[in-house]
């Protein structure tokens, strides 16, 4: 009997009595049973980063379904991976172009095909849930819940594979990790069609995959450099009948010709965010209150589609929704910006770990941060210098050079912020999410920067500009030496965090770490931002400045900056709801009209237009071409045109599917409008019915000169 005969049919338990012809093992069920039990134990829990009850960590309880769809490389944008993904989601939702697939269906036939893909690439940004999805796949297979057509599943992380320096064979790799399968390995290899390899985290691989490696005869016993071994396996030169799933971040590419399916994890949808809140708190009333707060805050809701962000938000909001009002610290307010969420998260994990009992409940932020001031600032400095150097994995020597002995790690709050990557004799560390490193780096910048070098620091981080000034502070000199100016786009999240944390310092919220700055800094900031908007900047730089101003959240600064913004060009810059919120936040502080707002091809959709409604009346030239706008958006635009304060002279709505109902609303608005001179409505789905009231409405209009 071959191994394929031990694969259970749906609904039939794996309890067949075997008369085997295996070379070594007479009963393959025993090692396979050991293998499955071992996988169930290893994948049974989701690890949290603050103290949590066991009931909330089990994967069956905490796992929340993810939105996975087939990848479209044409939607890829060169920018910070979080912003690129947020914009991709906006395009998919507004165009309604996606097919949702569950992780267990990754090896199912694609639409219109009758064959199963064997080589699958799954990409997703940090924290989106790639590793958890793989964990769930392994767990469900081991329990017999899904993918029961596979006899055996082998999982490896690329962190593990990076430890292999000498040439190695596939058989040796498997025996190294799964020694309990050694006896039946020859028989498993005889039927590779029933084998699945799960390789997680290609972006963390120390070696570069070489898909141009010369073809040669290879088998499971051929010893190869581990990078070549993975390349041969995924190309199909080795065990072509087996199935392979590789996960990676977007920054790592595999030639598409070797991928039978390319999928992307887009995180949570709205229903999954609500589900996650319930699974996190295990309390219907509490989870509903938290979810409603998140859903009503565009900034937080825009973050919550990423599972790890959702975890951070829920952890931060616990402070305000799980404690009695009398216990809530007066120096804490419910976070509204991204920076405030992360600062509350940092406060929460430190308070949980450093303080105990009544002291833990009642201690203010100043007290908590003061208790760990030296260690926190040292870790923040470490995060900052590593970020400037584009470094995300660390060895023992890295910490020791910053005066952070590893023997103190398990008993300090470090263990809530860093994760250990311990594989055999090698021990490495990483921040458990890239944004934690970026936030801590920004904390160091906000506490270290002085009034004299603030402008120079902003010039460096946002524009890569710096002066060779021997009188610059040590902080700035080190920053200039470490920063790779060709990778400034990777500092976008850092600069937003810095803006928010600078606001916290200005407001005395970092009292345990640094003295507040003087009010004259507000003037410096206003002048600096004002100068930026007078420069010729890329669309991405303009958008990042708007977000920095929203994170800073200082009305006096925005009022200084707004008069410098005469025109805004974000043409072909895909904007999500949070981007529209940031744009509205800044422009609504302007006392003057905006000469031009160009949002053509920005994919804002109806929801984005709703966020922009308070400012659109003051835009003299308004470009809304090809923005996935519908009849509801046209109705909203008609309200703007009816407004007594409307100053719109030229309105470009072409390329939107507003249809007859939408255009009838616009004709009605023009009946009383006295500002619009040119209106462009070509390619908007208007038929003859859309002209029913055009003569009646436009007969008395004295200003419209051109209608397309």
UniProtKB/TrEMBL annotation:
InterPro entries: LRR_dom_sf, NACHT_NTPase, NLR, NLRP_HD2, NOD1/2_WH, P-loop_NTPase. Gene3D superfamilies: P-loop containing nucleotide triphosphate hydrolases (3.40.50.300), Ribonuclease Inhibitor (3.80.10.10). It is found in: Cytoplasm. Keywords: ATP-binding, Cytoplasm, Leucine-rich repeat, Nucleotide-binding, Repeat. The keyword S-adenosyl-L-methionine does not apply. It comes from the Eukaryota. GO terms for molecular function: ATP binding. Residues 118-251 form the NACHT domain. It holds the Pfam family NLRC4_HD2. GO terms for cellular component: cytoplasm. PANTHER family: NACHT, LRR AND CARD DOMAINS-CONTAINING (PTHR24106). This is NLRC3 protein. The gene is Nlrc3_2.
């Amino acid at each position: 009997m071959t191994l394929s005969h031990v694969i259970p049919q749906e609904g039939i338990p794996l309890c067949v009595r075997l008369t085997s012809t295996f070379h070594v093992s007479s009963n393959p069920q025993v090692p396979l049973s050991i293998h499955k039990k071992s996988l169930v134990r290893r994948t049974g829990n989701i690890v949290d980063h603050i103290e949590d009850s066991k009931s909330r960590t089990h994967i069956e309880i905490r796992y929340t379904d993810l939105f996975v769809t087939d990848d479209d490389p044409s939607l890829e944008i060169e920018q910070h991976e979080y912003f690129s993904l947020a914009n991709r989601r906006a395009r998919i939702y507004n165009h309604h172009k996606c097919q949702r697939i569950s992780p267990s269906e990754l090896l199912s036939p694609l639409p219109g095909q009758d064959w199963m893909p064997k080589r699958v690439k799954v990409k997703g940004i940090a924290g989106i849930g790639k590793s958890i999805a793989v964990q769930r796949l392994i767990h469900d297979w081991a329990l017999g819940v899904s993918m029961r057509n596979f006899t055996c599943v082998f999982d490896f992380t690329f962190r593990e594979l990076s430890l292999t320096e000498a040439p190695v064979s596939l058989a040796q790799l498997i025996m190294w990790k799964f020694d309990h399968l050694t006896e039946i390995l020859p028989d498993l290899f005889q039927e590779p069609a029933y084998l699945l390899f799960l390789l997680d985290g290609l972006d963390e691989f120390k070696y570069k995959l070489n898909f141009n490696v010369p073809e040669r005869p290879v088998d499971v016993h051929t010893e190869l450099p581990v990078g070549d071994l993975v390349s041969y396996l995924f190309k199909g030169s080795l065990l072509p009948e087996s199935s392979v799933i590789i996960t990676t971040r977007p920054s790592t590419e595999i030639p598409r010709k070797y991928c039978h399916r390319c999928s992307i994890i887009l995180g949570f949808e709205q229903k999954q965010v609500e589900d996650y809140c319930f699974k996190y708190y295990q309390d219907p009333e509490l989870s509903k209150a938290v979810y409603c707060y998140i859903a009503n805050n565009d900034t937080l809701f825009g973050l919550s589609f990423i599972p790890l962000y959702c975890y951070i938000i829920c952890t931060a909001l616990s402070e305000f929704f799980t404690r009695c009002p009398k216990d809530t610290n007066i120096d804490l307010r419910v976070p509204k910006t991204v920076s405030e969420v992360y600062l509350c998260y940092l406060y929460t994990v430190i308070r949980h770990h450093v303080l105990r009992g009544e002291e833990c409940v009642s201690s203010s932020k100043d007290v908590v941060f003061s208790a760990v001031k030296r260690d926190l600032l040292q870790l923040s400095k470490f995060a900052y210098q590593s970020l400037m150097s584009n470094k995300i994995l660390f060895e023992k020597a890295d910490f020791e050079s910053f005066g952070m002995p590893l023997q103190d790690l398990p008993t300090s709050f470090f263990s809530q912020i860093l994760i250990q990557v311990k594989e055999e004799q090698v021990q490495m560390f990483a921040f458990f999410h890239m944004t934690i490193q970026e936030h801590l780096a920004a904390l160091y910048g906000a506490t270290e920067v002085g009034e004299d070098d603030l402008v120079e620091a902003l010039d460096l981080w946002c524009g890569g500009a710096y002066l060779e000034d021997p009188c610059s502070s040590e902080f700035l000199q080190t920053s200039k030496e470490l920063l790779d100016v060709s990778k400034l786009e990777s500092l976008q999240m850092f600069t937003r965090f810095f803006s928010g944390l600078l606001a916290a310092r200005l407001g005395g919220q970092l009292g345990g770490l640094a003295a507040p700055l003087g009010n004259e800094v507000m003037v410096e900031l206003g002048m600096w931002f004002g100068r930026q908007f007078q420069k010729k900047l890329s669309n991405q730089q303009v958008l990042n400045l708007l977000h920095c101003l929203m994170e800073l959240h200082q009305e006096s600064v925005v009022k200084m900056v707004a008069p410098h913004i005469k025109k805004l060009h974000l043409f072909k810059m895909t904007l999500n709801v949070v981007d529209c919120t940031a744009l509205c936040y800044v422009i609504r502080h302007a006392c003057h009209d905006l000469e031009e707002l160009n949002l053509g091809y920005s994919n804002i959709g109806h929801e984005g237009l709703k966020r922009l409604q308070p400012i659109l009346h003051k835009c003299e030239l308004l470009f809304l071409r090809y923005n996935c706008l519908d009849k509801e958006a046209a109705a909203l635009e008609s309200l703007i045109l009816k407004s007594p304060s409307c100053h719109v002279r030229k309105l470009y709505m072409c390329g939107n599917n507003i249809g007859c109902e939408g255009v009838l609303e616009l004709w009605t608005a023009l009946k009383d409008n006295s500002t619009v001179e040119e209106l462009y409505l070509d390619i908007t789905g208007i038929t003859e019915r859309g002209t029913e009231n055009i003569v009646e409405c436009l007969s008395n209009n004295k200003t419209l000169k051109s209608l397309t």
